[in-house]
Protein 1
Amino acid sequence: MSSEPVPVSTSPAVETFSLVKLFGSFVAVDNLDLQVKRGSFFGFLGPNGAGKSTTIKMLTGLLAPTSGQLRVLGVDIIQHPMEVKRRIGVVPEDLNLFERLTGVEMLAFTGRMYGLTKPEIAQRSKELLELMELQDEPKKLIIEYSHGMKKKLSLACALIHRPEILFLDEPFEGVDAIASRTLKDLLSRLTARGLTVFLTSHVLEIVERLCSDIAIIAQGKLLAAGSLTELRKGIRLEDESNGPVSLEEYFIHVVGGTRIDSEQEVLQWLT
């Protein structure tokens, strides 16, 4: 792939203002004010049902907000959805691949949808398949891929048009250690070139290692946002003498979770 850096603007990659999403009487996203710097590796965290995927769907034009405003790359996605969609890449949690195609065919289809020329598609597809280590079985249908292979192909499809921001919903879920390492290395290189990555993941160790900034939501509300170093300064935990507060400890502290400190408290009927 080209080593030419993605142009970086000083305006935020993502901005939301009092963003609300209702499903009937259920409040999935509750007055969310969020700002993501361009070129950052942004981790968007929360427990199950917190509103993470709903937020991503609104930011990528798949869901309309109930109220509020949102801008992606400086553009109001409600007013100009196609302009935004041309400039972003998305790896949804459910992947949404056409499984009766081969990897080459899937990339060709995706490239055509983004208006790439046939020579561009051919060159970029070749490089992406090699990068993702998917080049050895060109006639293999996607339905025969492992889950990790599908994740890597979905990421290749999201990158083929050279987006300015990449939205990743649980990209490491169900991925083995080798595929996970490939994805982590690639994402780190892309952010170093100026690409913005907006990541949701329950694997907090990966988020802690990769992300420059994080935000935590629960029940649709924003609870914390900033760099992990900045956020750590605002809390004091009992075990801080053992070193810096981990992201896991901070996350549990913020969302109100509790730890079990005694083995006697764990399902006594099993012991």
Protein 2
Amino acid sequence: MALIVNASKILEPFTDVYVIKDSRFEMLPGVREYTEAIPGRHGEIDFGMEFGPRAIELRCVVEVIYAQQLAKMREIAGQINPLNGEHELTFADDPGKIYKVKYAGSMAMDSLKRNVTWMEFVLPFKMKDPFIYSDTGKSLVGSGTIANDGTVETPLIVEIKGDVTNPGVDIGSTTLTYIGTVTTSDTLIIDTGKKIVTFNGVNALANYGGGFPKLSPGNTTVVATDAGITTFKWVDRWL
């Protein structure tokens, strides 16, 4: 389900829930560092790091008489039920960006304020994927330049249709190769985000080489196969 904080600060699909504050202005999500201390050696060995999940909270207020507040809370709970999966949260003041969120934690009682005609509360969400995505995918057919207008590297999908034998595709300085024949009725898909390769929907990793590169922010030159039709698909994303 889509959740939208519109230009009037109403949290759609509700018509009476106003967002008075949110926590989007966290500069970066938390990180997980992998280090090891070695006895007899100063400092520690750095084995890299990864971004952890990102928390985002919406402080909301709704005008509702006291007798109907429990019913309103149940209505809100039914809409944001985490058993229904992730929601795509968007903000009118940040157009084109999607926050993939899921209700997490609890609406703690100390965050709930109630009066005879209104109720204020905090909706806690978690972004298991800490990146913010464009709401519009991009694509390029054939060779050319790919523009990742986000601020962080993003995966891409390469789709190859025949006729072509042993196709090779260049993404920047990386060459992706496939051993085999792709006819006009076949589809070869390389997904560098999920790290899978399929031929007509069947696992084809055994015939693939080249790794799973991602697009850095900015422009990347791509070179399609000499024959057949090659389509590059990607979505910009931000920290």
Protein 3
Amino acid sequence: MAASALMNVMVGAARKAGRSLARDFGEVAQLQVSVKGPANFVTAADQRAEEIVYRELARARQGYGFLMEEGGEIVGDDKTHRWIIDPLDGTTNFLHSIPLFGISIALERDGELVAGLIYNPVSDELYTAEKGKGAFLNDKRLRVAARKTLQDSVISTGIPFRGRGGYERFNDETAPLMHEVAGLRRTGAASIDLAWTAAGRFDGYWEHDLQPWDIAAGIVILIEAGGIATDIQGGENMLDSGSIVAGNPTIQKLLLASLKRPA
């Protein structure tokens, strides 16, 4: 299926930023042995990638607004369109030379997510979707997995890290699930979790305390691959609530019910 003009713009921006990130990723391992460590270098890599994406999209679609992890919100003259961007989702992975991270770009039109892209420049996996046009990994059509029981399912989640809190809730949710599912996984990047759920590698995914740029693109890709996503309450307030429960229609409902059960 030929890419639309909109998707060509998004892919062009992601691939250009991806080349920058791939070069920087090649340098990270060399910095692991330094006393100062690579943290400052990775922050600069993140900012460079965001600037590339911003510049490319602003030039191609003048007047559109932006919501970006590093640059914050920029209100455009065109109030109906807004780009939602995470230039490096999986910063800790990047920092430790783990090749699981992605550039995430979504487009919102009149408050509705209509296009999404996730690109891992190391694996060269490009996930794309537009509303009503299906989801793709490079040129291959994506479909969510067809499993019907939690006991057959591999579920991904996020693990609270230092300074974020949420440890007790994490333990309350995962302890019973460990006995219900085939396995729990953690990639370290919400965008990758959603992309892999769309691709059928994971059967479901849930997480709390997320930002809009973490999940906006992945939501479009997942839905166009035949999946569904809600917030932890079962509603559609994912971008504002920061919580998400995703999977194929059957597994998502089972996962949501498990997570909402009384403690």
